[in-house]
Amino acid sequence: MTSRNKKARKNLGFYVNNYKFHQPFQILIDGTFAFAALQNKFNIQEQLKKYFQSELKLLTTSCIISETEKLGIFSTSINGTTQIVKQYAIHKCGHEKKPISGSKCLRSMIGKDNSSRYIIATQDRELQDRLRLIPGVPLIYLHGKTPTLESPSEASRKRAEVMQKDLGMTTWQKENIKVLEKQAGIMQEKDKLKKKKKKGGPNPLSCLKKKKKPETILSKNGIKSGKVRKRKIKIAPHIKEALVIELKNKCET
Ligand SMILES: [Zn+2]
């Protein structure tokens, strides 16, 4: 891998990591890029694939085609350019009925945040300047025969920084949530224990009540129980003696 490829991969990696770009990478090619490729005998399909070492999807729009067609009236090489851009898949841009200029069309395709994740291949300096202000728009241009994926613009880098900070916040928040969940878990365990106590509670209580009830009933009925016996034992000896004498007298009589 050449240092040029390494730089391209590094720059592409930035968009993969920060702006969710993925293979096949969509490259929107405008007339100026196709024209430069033609002039420099640069085979866009082959050379770009080599340069990026990734799966690519080369795209254009009907506006770009009609623009190169119009310009084709004046130049044979522009005609060749039309032939080049016509090879690519035409992405719907919404101006099919009323074509607009290629640069305006590309700007509308990018919108505010390049949500479709296009890489823009253009030699148009003015368009490049405008697209550099929008975060997450990779730019590629030809320097002679050499393709160059530009280093991320300041807008792209700043937005990525903010997003990473946001990401940091969410991981921090996630940690916080984990702690809260753990605490909630402990609370739930406590609740479970309380419920268990409550569940186990009524039984001993009812048992106690049941015990208390028979006791009272027993004592009221005078049926012998441990406690009643204990009371008998507590009877003073002289009364016991008197009782025994009484019983003896009854038996004798
Ligand atoms: Zn269009």
Automatic annotation (TrEMBL):
Any Gene Ontology biological process = rRNA processing
Q: Does the keyword rRNA processing apply?
A: yes
Q: What is its main location?
A: nucleus
Q: Indicate the segments annotated as coiled coil, or none if absent.
A: none
Subcellular location(s) per record: Nucleus, Nucleolus
Keywords on this record?
A: Nucleus, Ribosome biogenesis, rRNA processing
Question: Which stretches of sequence are listed as region Disordered?
Answer: 190-223
| All copies of domain UTP23 sensor motif region, residue ranges | 194-212
- InterPro entries referenced in this protein's UniProt entry, alphabetically: Fcf1/UTP23 (IPR006984), PIN-like_dom_sf (IPR029060), UTP23_sensor (IPR057776)
Query: CDD domains, alphabetically?
Result: PIN_Fcf1-Utp23-H (cd09866)
**Do you know which Pfam families this protein is assigned to?**
Fcf1, UTP23_sensor
- Domain of life the protein comes from: Eukaryota
What PANTHER family does the annotation carry? RRNA-PROCESSING PROTEIN UTP23 HOMOLOG
User: Hey, which family's this protein in?
Assistant: Belongs to the UTP23/FCF1 family. UTP23 subfamily.
* Protein name as annotated: rRNA-processing protein UTP23 homolog
